[in-house]
Structures are given as structure tokens and as C-alpha cells.
Amino acid sequence: MRSAMFSWRIIKNNSCPRFPHKAYSPICLEFRPPERGRAVPEAAMRHQNGPFPGCFYMANRAVSLMDSAGAGIKSVACCMPRRSLSVCLVQNSAMLTARLSEILASLPPLPHANSVQSLTPAPVVLVGAGPGDPDLLTIKALRALQSASLVLYDNLVSDAVLAFAPTTAQRIYVGKESSRHSLPQAEICTLMICLARAGHPVLRLKGGDGYIFGRGGEEAQALAEAGIPFTVIPGLTAAQGAGASVGIPLTHRDHARALVFVTGHLQDNRQVDLDWAMLARPNQTVVIYMGLGTLSIICAQLVAHGLPPTTPAALIERATLPDERCVTGTVADLPALCASASLKPPTLIIIGEVVSLRAVLTRTLPLP
User: Fold this and answer.
1) 140-151 pLDDT per residue, tens
2) Which of 133, 154, 206, 209 is catalytic?
3) 176 is an active site residue
4) Considering 176, 268, 273, 333, which one is annotated as catalytic?
5) What's the whole-model pTM score?
6) Dihedral (Cα; 135, 141, 145, 150), 10-degree rounding
7) Alpha carbon distance 282, 349 (integer Å)
8) Helices (H) and strands (E) in the chain, counts
9) Among this protein's residues, is 135 annotated catalytic?
10) pLDDT tens sequence across 346-360
């Protein structure tokens, strides 16, 4: 298809180089100016009343497009020009469209915002916020947070950590709780890419360490595939913070010569899909993230696969925070203890002989 001002091509596969997520890239339109080096008239590309103020996108909003399955495209997700001008389209993305429109409208204008050449991607920093106690934030993370202008933060980021951001910084909540997501993960990745392509540096703040059950790897992959520059600042993971805080060493030569981290949430088939035989081995510590809702299944499966029911186990709620709670028992009675204490997420599960050391080690721990 051609117009007097642009030529473009339609990519109908799921590997759009500028918008990699399969669920959100049924079609990518790539606009190219007809002559290399020729300035593109802004009026021909910008809709003042469009969904993304300050962003360049398709001039003709009435264009009707169909994806490979014959379904109509519902909304424009992002269009950020670099060497060429690209538009990515998303089906059924009303939530993302509204959120991005709201965010962009609230941000201050960028220098040279009207220049096509100036709209190169801004960097994204993926920062691990640690387990909650602000004193456990790394110096590098603290410096990044103190200089941030736009922070996308998760549910597990404590208020005390978030307070290190400048008062002028825009704070955007994109957290996920069990069965309650402010934005699906793929749309969080899309949001970061769109904001970076719009020229806004993004600090992505995640609880614990983003590369340990924090989906930081997925986000880093999305940024890399989209050509967005990014850096990663690790954080203290919840298991380390919890063990130190409540007096449970994760390894010990007499009790645990291996350490295993797993996630205990339900899979799409409503099963907890873990290697139970491996987890039931002796002389190791097993730390389970996001396993509170499936605690009964976890304990029953471990015992069924050979773990002695008398194996010490602990539940740590809101580790390292002032209202932290720790409940200890055995694998056999842990579900009942959890119900009795009415524990809530975020709660970490630690299973292994190292839990028995808590009675000794907490004798000299300072009171909270």
C-alpha cells in the first residue's frame, strides 16, 4: 500500500522485531519516509486527539486492518520513530491504551519533543528493591532511585524504599497480586518499551531480586529484542533477607549442603508442577516463593515422595519489615499452623534441618 507521503509494509507474523511479544504483535506496520534524510511533516503524522499525546502514529485513523486470522485490530499501542517510523498494533488493549495515555499526559515535555530524529529510546534500569527493609537496598540501587524521574514499581516494593525516589518523580504502580494484576506481564513489558521509545528514562523497581522469580528475565529479554538500552541492578532476594532476619541460615555444613529455590504457585493446569523427588532429598534447604496458597499440596507431596514428616519448616511473613512474623513447626503440621496464624502473602516457606537452628540463633538476635 502507498500514499503520497509514506510507504509501508504489513508484517503478519509473530516475530515483529520492534514489538517482540507474541500475544501482542499480530501485525506491525512500518512506515518509511519516501526519501532518505527528508524531514517528515509532523502534521501528517500526529493526531492531537489520539490516544498517546506526544507520540507519532498513523495519520489516517480510519484505516481498517485485519490480522492473519481476519480479526479487526482494535487499537494502536505504540509508534516511536528511530531510523524508520514504526507502528505496533495490539488487539483488545484498552487497559494498556488508557494507562499509557494517562502516564504520557502526566509527564513533563521532553526537549526537542517535536523532532523525529530526537526520539531515540531512553534507557531502562531494572532495579532489585530487596526484601523490604530500606537499609538492605544496595548503594547502586539507592543512587539509581534517587535520580529517577519515572518509576514503575511492583506490589512487593515497600513504601520505605519507594520514598527514596525524588518527590518530583512520577510513580506508576504495575503490581501483581495473586489473581489480581494491575496490568498483565506482557503489557508491563509493552509499557516500558513505549515509554522508553517516547524518550522517558524508566526505572523498573521490583521487590527482592528481579532475576529470582521476579520476571526480570522476561522484561530484560523484551527490552533487548525491542532494541531498548537497559541495565540491571541486583537486589537482596527474599530468602536471604528472611533467613538472616529470623535466624535461619540457608546453608550449614552439618545440615544443608545444597540450597534450592522454587516457586509454588499454580500452573495453568491448576497443578503445582515441581520435581517432588528432587525436593524431598535429605541434606538440603528448600525455599519456596509464592507457595502460601498451595501449602497443603506442597507439604503432602513432599511427604509422599519421601521427606520425613518431622522435617523442620518455617513460614516467614513480610520478611525484614517491622511487622514480620515467623511460624515454625514441621512439614506435617505447617498447613495447620499457617491457618491458625492467619498468615497472608508475601510469605516465604523454608524447609530443612537448618530451621531447627533458629531456637539457638535467636537467643542473641536483637528484639525488633
Assistant:
1) 999 999 999 999
2) 154
3) yes
4) 176
5) 0.72
6) -140
7) 17
8) 10, 16
9) no
10) 999 999 999 999 999
